[in-house]
């Protein structure tokens, strides 16, 4: 005979002896509880048909009950599982926002880079022919480094762009002086004076400012989306404390033990339980909101002054202008425009979703407790479970955060021991927010200590104390006759030479020759 049968007989026999003759006595049935318990997927083997004495209960009120010790243990674990799922489901929106928007932004940005590189290559092949193709690695390296920077590589954008223009000047210096042979040290010396003499005009300076700001903003923004995604994923996986599990069991399943499986918890009762169980998550809110604000600021930069399209879409024309003093080519690649319009829409969409994710962690208790499957709602305050019986819940609602749970009537919370894991997420958000603020101002937090370009110092110039080598070897061979097969090359060379050998550029070349002798 199961143990619970004896527990039913003894109290019932005592009750019968104390009642007057002829009284109609019926023990309260556990039929409704058995049905609800079975619907949860549990076996009915250990559940009584009628109420039994409840002295064995450790969490629920020790009154007549439909719960055995085994049932209380199983329902306690069930309440823990349901709570973990509730938090994951409730935070699903914010998690999917960061996952999907990160993927979209990253795809669009990479496609924009690919299209810009392809456009430059196509335009320069048409314009300069073999001359470009023989020197195309200079431009390929530029895009390789831009991609490496965007994906988190340790690239100093300013130094990389300075190096690009220096290499380009070396190649052009050789092209317009084909009668000479220059040593490597001499060419490095030539590149040293790029900033002072400005052979490419003001294009390098303007492009450096635009590229640096736009790429810092884009890289930091996509890093912010990554950090937001990781923090949201980690925080949504809760590990309730023993005190929280007891409170969850009492709120969600003690009605079963009292024979009231259809009675849901009072709304305010649920709020106090959730505020106690999610106290540490609520403390994340302040830093999370600052992080979201910083993300929104950088998003505005990407839409406005740090607009990546204004840099990448005409980069081929800008570099060509620096080389040949050309006006902007009317030929544009429509695919790039389409990609950017889609990307602009993506940034706007991200901004709207980010705004909705503010205060998400402190709002978790309210979001969970307004779920009709969890509580009786605010309109049914008299017919709800208050932790002891079906009646109004009287205690006041606690404020948000760990320190405010010191007097929480439902959850035993140790306010002296903040959750280390949550504190780590707070620190990750704080670091990312600092990077975003720097990016908003056009600064790369990893390279704030770079030397001022006006200082005149250059890395790898090959010159010591402004004394440059004099290896300047004259080659006196005559120019070769025109070969029909070389017509495209010579035509491109003539076009390039005509554009470059203007009076101002010739004077620059002469100055460079004097300086580097």
Automatic annotation (TrEMBL):
<dbReference type="GO" id="GO:0098552">
    <property type="term" value="C:side of membrane"/>
</dbReference>
<dbReference type="Pfam" id="PF01153">
    <property type="entry name" value="Glypican"/>
</dbReference>
<keyword id="KW-0336">GPI-anchor</keyword>
<keyword id="KW-1003">Cell membrane</keyword>
<keyword id="KW-0449">Lipoprotein</keyword>
<dbReference type="GO" id="GO:0005886">
    <property type="term" value="C:plasma membrane"/>
</dbReference>
<keyword id="KW-0357">Heparan sulfate</keyword>
<keyword id="KW-0325">Glycoprotein</keyword>
<dbReference type="GO" id="GO:0045202">
    <property type="term" value="C:synapse"/>
</dbReference>
<dbReference type="GO" id="GO:0005576">
    <property type="term" value="C:extracellular region"/>
</dbReference>
<dbReference type="GO" id="GO:0016477">
    <property type="term" value="P:cell migration"/>
</dbReference>
<comment type="similarity">
    <text>Belongs to the glypican family.</text>
</comment>
<protein>
    <submittedName>
        <fullName>Glypican-6</fullName>
    </submittedName>
</protein>
<feature type="signal peptide">
    <location>
        <begin position="1"/>
        <end position="23"/>
    </location>
</feature>
<dbReference type="InterPro" id="IPR001863">
    <property type="entry name" value="Glypican"/>
</dbReference>
<dbReference type="GO" id="GO:0098696">
    <property type="term" value="P:regulation of neurotransmitter receptor localization to postsynaptic specialization membrane"/>
</dbReference>
<dbReference type="GO" id="GO:0009986">
    <property type="term" value="C:cell surface"/>
</dbReference>
<comment type="function">
    <text>Cell surface proteoglycan.</text>
</comment>
<feature type="region of interest" description="Disordered">
    <location>
        <begin position="442"/>
        <end position="463"/>
    </location>
</feature>
<keyword id="KW-0732">Signal</keyword>
<keyword id="KW-0472">Membrane</keyword>
<dbReference type="GO" id="GO:0009966">
    <property type="term" value="P:regulation of signal transduction"/>
</dbReference>
<dbReference type="InterPro" id="IPR019803">
    <property type="entry name" value="Glypican_CS"/>
</dbReference>
<keyword id="KW-0654">Proteoglycan</keyword>
């Amino acid at each position: 005979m199961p143990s619970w049968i004896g527990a039913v007989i003894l109290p019932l026999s005592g009750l019968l002896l104390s009642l007057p003759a002829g009284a109609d006595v019926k023990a309260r049935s556990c039929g409704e509880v058995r049905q609800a318990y079975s619907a949860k997927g549990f076996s009915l083997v250990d559940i009584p048909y009628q109420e039994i004495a409840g002295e064995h209960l450790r969490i629920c009120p020790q009154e007549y009950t439909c719960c055995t010790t085994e049932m209380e243990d199983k329902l306690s674990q069930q309440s823990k599982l349901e709570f973990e799922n509730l938090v994951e489901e409730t935070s699903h929106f914010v998690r999917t926002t960061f996952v999907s928007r990160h993927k979209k932004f990253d795809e669009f940005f990479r496609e924009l880079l690919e299209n810009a590189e392809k456009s430059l290559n196509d335009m320069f092949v048409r314009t300069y022919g073999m001359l470009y193709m023989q020197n195309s690695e200079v431009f390929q390296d530029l895009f390789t480094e831009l991609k490496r920077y965007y994906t988190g590589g340790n690239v100093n954008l300013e130094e990389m762009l300075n190096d690009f223009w220096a290499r380009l000047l070396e190649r052009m210096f050789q092209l317009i002086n084909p009668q000479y042979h220059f040593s490597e040290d001499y060419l490095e010396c030539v590149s040293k004076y790029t900033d002072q003499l400005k052979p490419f005009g003001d294009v390098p300076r303007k492009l450096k400012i635009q590229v640096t700001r736009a790429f810092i903003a884009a890289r930091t923004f996509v890093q912010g989306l990554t950090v937001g995604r990781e923090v949201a994923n980690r925080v949504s996986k809760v590990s309730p404390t023993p005190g929280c599990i007891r409170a969850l069991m009492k709120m969600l399943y003690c009605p079963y033990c009292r024979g009231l499986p259809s009675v849901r918890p009072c709304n305010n009762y649920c709020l106090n339980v959730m505020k106690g169980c999610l106290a540490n998550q609520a403390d994340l809110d302040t830093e999370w909101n600052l992080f979201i604000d910083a993300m929104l600021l950088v998003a505005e930069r990407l839409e406005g002054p740090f607009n990546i399209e204004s840099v990448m879409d005409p980069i081929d024309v800008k570099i060509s202008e620096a080389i040949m003093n050309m006006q902007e080519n009317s030929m544009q690649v429509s695919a790039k425009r389409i990609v950017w319009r889609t990307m602009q829409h993506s940034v706007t969409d991200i901004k709207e979703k980010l705004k909705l994710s503010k205060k998400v962690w402190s709002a978790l208790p309210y979001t969970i407790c307004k779920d009709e499957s969890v509580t009786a709602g605010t309109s049914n305050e008299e017919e709800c479970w208050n932790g002891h019986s079906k009646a109004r819940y009287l205690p006041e609602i606690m404020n948000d955060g760990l320190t405010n749970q010191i007097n929480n009537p439902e959850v035993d919370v140790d306010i002296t021991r903040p959750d280390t894991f949550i504190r780590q997420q707070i620190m990750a958000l704080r670091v990312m927010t600092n990077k975003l603020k720097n990016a908003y101002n056009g600064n790369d937090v990893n390279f704030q200590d770079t030397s001022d370009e006006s200082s005149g110092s250059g890395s790898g110039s090959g010159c010591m104390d402004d004394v440059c080598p004099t290896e300047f070897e004259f080659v006196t061979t005559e120019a070769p006759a025109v070969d029909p097969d070389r017509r495209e090359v010579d035509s491109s060379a003539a076009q390039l030479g005509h554009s470059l050998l203007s009076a101002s550029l010739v004077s620059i070349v002469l100055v460079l020759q004097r300086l580097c002798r």
